[in-house]
Amino acid sequence: MRLDDAYGRKAQPYESGPNISPLQKNRLVFGQPEADHLIDYQLHGCTLRLQHAENEKAIVPDLPDDIMMILQGGLFSQAEDPILTAGDVVLPDTWNRLVANFEAPEGITILTINRS
């Protein structure tokens, strides 16, 4: 679905068929991880870990300098205010403080990046 569009097609699906360009061979495409399973990718001396968890406390960073990006879901307050949502990036120290106080009611998918 389009989030915004200069031609009045907001909230409409993208075209299919001949209007879609194929991905180039040098593009990294992530699979969708099953709940509580990890998918690791190696890229240019870095480990990219994709993880989906139904319980946010199941996501435990390995290294203090990991970079953690929310891809899907998020952390929310008890009043359902968003704390972290898709596109937000945090370090493990911040992540650990947030998961101690907030929940991911619909699960959360995170991409963690660290130097191998």
Mean pLDDT over the full residue set: 86
Characterize the overall form. globular
* Total strands: 6
How many helical elements?
A: 1
The share of residues in helices is under 10%
Strand content: 25-35%
Low-confidence stretches: none
Task: State the end-to-end distance.
Answer: 36 Å
Radius of gyration: 17 Å
User: Class by helix and strand content?
Assistant: mainly beta
Q: How many strands, which pairing sense, and closed or not: the largest β-sheet? A: 6 strands, antiparallel
- In sequence order, what are the helices and strands, one letter per element? EEEEEHE
Give an overview of the whole structure:
With 116 residues, the protein is mainly beta. The chain is built from one helix and six strands; from the N terminus they run βββββαβ. Strands 1, 2, 3, 4, 5 and 6 form a six-stranded antiparallel beta sheet that branches. β3 and β4 (82-85) form a beta hairpin. The longest helix has 8 residues, at 92-99.
Layout: helices, strands, pairs:
Layout: E1 37-43, E2 46-53, E3 67-76, E4 82-85, E5 89-90, H1 92-99, E6 108-115
Antiparallel strand pairs: 1-2, 2-6, 3-4, 3-5, 3-6
